[in-house]
Amino acid sequence: MKLRFLSIFAAAALLAACESAPSDTGTKGGAGQTTPMTGAKTIAPGSKEDFVANVGDRVFFDFDKTSLRADAKATLAKQAAWLKQYANYSMTIEGHADERGTREYNLALGEKRANAVKEFLAANGVAAARVKVVSYGKERPVALGSNEAAWSQNRRGVTVLN
């Protein structure tokens, strides 16, 4: 009985492995769908994907600093314009730090960075009531390593749409 079950299972697995996936050559439309013949995904205006891909969801800070750099201000100005246009979103600003320093110090630094982002957005017309801040300090690095290349990516403020 076990042999019969195993042979049926093996035959089904063999057939499943030989099946080819259907090809898509047309446009389905909508967010996240593919365009004809290119395989590129379209992004719906006003979607979270639109925000991340076309506006930018993060800004970076210098070592041990909470002040916004010129490139960060440019990104945040675009965020503010997008967020004013799509007022249905609330957001959480995540503050992050690199691995250097104590856990407590980096949590405080991350909070100051997140608040700097919030204050900039509020000064540029985004209602402060829509914005929540949280600090992860050094607990959620995006780049691993103990060098400036990794550290510079981890010193950031990230705008997460809710």
From TrEMBL:
Transmembrane segments: none annotated. Keywords: Cell cycle, Cell division, Cell outer membrane, Lipoprotein, Membrane, Palmitate, Signal. It comes from the Bacteria. It holds the Pfam family OmpA. The keyword Membrane applies. GO terms for cellular component: cell outer membrane. Residues 1-21 form the signal peptide. It is a lipid-anchor. Residues 48-162 form the OmpA-like domain. Residues 21-43 are annotated as: Disordered. The keyword Cell cycle applies. CDD domains: OmpA_C-like. GO terms for biological process: cell division. It is found in: Cell outer membrane. HAMAP family: Pal (MF_02204). Part of the Tol-Pal system, which plays a role in outer membrane invagination during cell division and is important for maintaining outer membrane integrity. Belongs to the Pal lipoprotein family. The Tol-Pal system is composed of five core proteins: the inner membrane proteins TolA, TolQ and TolR, the periplasmic protein TolB and the outer membrane protein Pal. They form a network linking the inner and outer membranes and the peptidoglycan layer. This is Peptidoglycan-associated lipoprotein. It comes from Paramagnetospirillum kuznetsovii.
